[in-house]
Predict the structure.
Amino acid sequence: MIKVAKFGGSSVADAAQFKKVRSIVKADPDRRFVVVSASGKRFSGDNKITDLLLLVNAHIQYHVDCSSLLESIEQRYVQIAQELGLKYPIAEKFEEFSSVIQSLSPEYIVSRGEWFTGQLMAEYLGLPFLDAADAIVFHHDGTVDMERTQTRVRDAVARLGSFVLPGFYGATVDGTIKLFQRGGGDITGAILARCIDAGVYENWTDVSGFLAADPRVVKNPRSIHRITFDEMRELSYMGASVLQEEAIFPVREANIPIQIKNTNDPDAKGTIIRETAEEHEQEHLITGIAGKRDFMAVHVQKAHMSNQVGFLRRALSVFERYGVSIEHIPTGVDSFGVVVNGSDVKDSIYSIVNDLQQELKPDSINVIDSLALISVVGRNMSRRAGTSGRIFGCLGEAGINIRMITQSSQEISIIVGVNNADFDRAINVIYDNFVAGEMVQIPTKALA
Ligand SMILES: Nc1ncnc2c1ncn2[C@@H]1O[C@H](COP(=O)(O)OP(=O)(O)O)[C@@H](O)[C@H]1O
Ligand SMILES: N[C@@H](CC(=O)OP(=O)(O)O)C(=O)O
C-alpha cells in the first residue's frame, strides 16, 4: 500500500523533531512520499517560520529594514542543518534568497519556508526533493488544476520513485508561485495522495489524533478514533485546526482514508477519517465540539415576511453586493438572521444595514456583534431526540445566554451562538454534559 505522510510544522520545528520524522518514515517502507510544512513552533510562544516570512513581507511593504528578521529565520535552518550534520549549503542558499528579496513576490517569499524545510528533510531522509512549483499546478484564479497536477505528479513518481514535497504552495503554468490558505500543507498532502492513488493519507501532527475539543480550551479532551468526512469537515471548518478544512475534498472523492497521527507518540492510535465510521454497539452521542469567535449576526424582522416571494433572496443579494460570504441563516416565520464573519463586514456593516432598510422595509433590524459560534457535531445525534433541548438546558443552567441556534440539514451538527466572553465556558459545559461520557445504543439493524 502506498502511503503519503504529511508532517506539519510542529513535526519539523527543530532537529529533534526531524529525527522523529526520520524514524517514522524509516519504520514503514510504504511511506515513500513525504510532504513537509515550514518549521513551526518549538515551544509555546515561539514563532512559526511562515509567520516570520509574512512579517518579512510586511516590513518590505512598509520599507522597513528586515535584515535581523531574516537572520533569525536563517539561524533556525542553520541550527537544524548543523545538528543533523547536513551538507546542504543552507547559509549560502538563504543568503542568496535574502539578497534578492526586494525583487521577489510576497507569495514566493512565504513559500520559501516549506522550500528550505523540504530541502533539509530530503537530504536527511536520503530522498529526492520535488519542488512543489513543478508538481502542484494552480489556475490563475487560485484553484488547483488537478489534471495537470496529476500528470506532473505521476511523471515525478515514475522518474524519482519516492520524494519529499514541500507543502502549501505550487505554481501557475507560467511559473508564478501561489499559496494555499493557511494550514494548506494539509491540502498538498491530500492532493498528492489523490494523484498517486494512495491507500492512506497520513497526517502527522503534535496531538494523538482528532480530539473531541480543542485541547487549549478543554483539559485533556478524549481522542476520537473514528470520524466521518462530514463530521470532520464540520469540526475543522469551525476551528478544529488539526486538519485544514479543505483538505478532505481530494481524498474523499477517491475514498482514501485520512489518518491523523502524533509525531511525538507514533504508537498512539490516532484518528481515522473515512466516508462512514464503522459502527459499534455503543457509540458516543457527540463526536466533537469546535467553535470560533468574532461573528456578527444581522437579524431582520418583518410581519408576513414568509408570504413575500423573494424576500430572503433580496436580503442575501445585499450581502453579495458587498462581497460578504454568509455562514448561517437561522430563520423563523417572520424573521431571519444572517451570520457573517465579523472581520468580513467591519468596514461595511453600516452600509449593509442601510441597504437592507431601503430594500426590505423591515419592522426591525438588530445587529449582534462579538458572537461566538460553537458547533456540536455527531453522526449519532439523529438517533436521539431532544439533544438540542438538552444543550440549551445545560447552557441555561450555567447562566450562559444563547444568542442563536441552527441545525445542519443532515442533523449531524447543532450550532449555538453565545457571547465571545462565554466561549470557553460554554464549550466546557457542553463537553462535561455530553462528550465526556454519554453513549448511545446503535440499533442492531445499523450494524448488520
Ligand atoms: N479538536 C482538536 N483536536 C486536536 N487538535 C486540535 C483540535 N482543535 C484544535 N487543535 C489544535 O491543533 C493543533 C494541531 O494543528 P497544527 O498546529 O496545524 O499542527 P501542525 O503544525 O502539525 O500542522 C493541536 O496542537 C491543537 O492545539
Ligand atoms: N506553513 C503553512 C502551511 C501549513 O500547513 O502549516 P502547518 O502544517 O504548520 O499547519 C502555515 O503555517 O500556514
About this structure: The chain has two domains: 3-206, 288-447.
